[in-house]
Amino acid sequence: MSLDADLQALIRTIPDHPKPGIQFRDISTLLLDGPGFAEAIDRMAASIAGEGVQLVAGIEARGFVFAAALAYKLKCGLLMLRKPGKLPGARVGVDYELEYGTDRLEMHADACGEGMRVVLVDDLIATGGTALAAVELLRSTGAVVDAAAFVIDLPELGGADRLRAAGVVVHHLIAFEGD
Fold it and tell me: What is the pLDDT of residue 98?
């Protein structure tokens, strides 16, 4: 069995969550497996090593888990992209459209600046709306965001392709077809 298949076996699928017809890919089972989680972080780090990353930006909430471990592994800073109202002090943010409404991502106004190299990290890329908003937010501060890393890609939903069209190289460990 390939390493990708080994990691994929650690991802639990929960049918019909949060609504009928959705196959929810649950990374909590990967997180419960110490060697599997370590392997996932090592592989994600290897995919972005050498890109001169200064900050790893994690998207709330599951992205924080992977971003923190990657920042530690790469010996760089961790930037948390939060939902509204979670950060004290001066913030910058971006509103974005979802299938069912709008949402917002925020970060501290002084978290990164002109020319800083930032890699975006989350557990999963689906339609790409949140990831594209994160790239927009980071780039609005002058940051260079040309790479993103995800544990899971759902290629049929097109999010990775949307990020690529925005000039972001997309790395992922596992692709689940048909979702």
Answer: 81
